[in-house]
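Hi U.,

Before I forget, here's the chain from the pilot set. I'm dumping it here mostly so it's searchable later in email.
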Amino acid sequence: MTRTLLAATLVLSLAAPAVAGGAAAPSTQVQAATPAAVMASLKAAGYRVTMNPTSPDRDPTMTVTAGDRELQVWLSSCANGVCGRVTASSSWDYSDAEELDTEFLNEWNSNYYTQAYLYEGSVYLDSTMPIRGGYTQATLKAWMTDYLDDVSAFEDELPSE
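Structure:
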């Protein structure tokens, strides 16, 4: 009896914030790891988000605008509409550069959690956050804030063309 009462109290106390007055979900509520929930969480964090056209053989992607910066966000390890990771990516075109000293990439990767790399004439900076099992809006917002801080710092390290 005590176990049943405790379980019922726990369920009610966890469910109450989600239904109180029909208000938006608080940032501490666990969000589903779906493209729509990630998009809604990014919008709630103040970013402009556009879902990119989907195709059956590709994971969902979106374009996120943060101030004057535009970046790509994609979800991966998706099955039945639920995804395992969200990745943010920014790039800088160096295809016209005669030679690019890439030592700064190794230096960056040894000091930051974001991943820098060179691919087909562009330099990329990516960050991935696991979302399998859910996440909170506050966590996603903090991840994006940290990523954008790293993007700004990374731009300061980029060599001039």
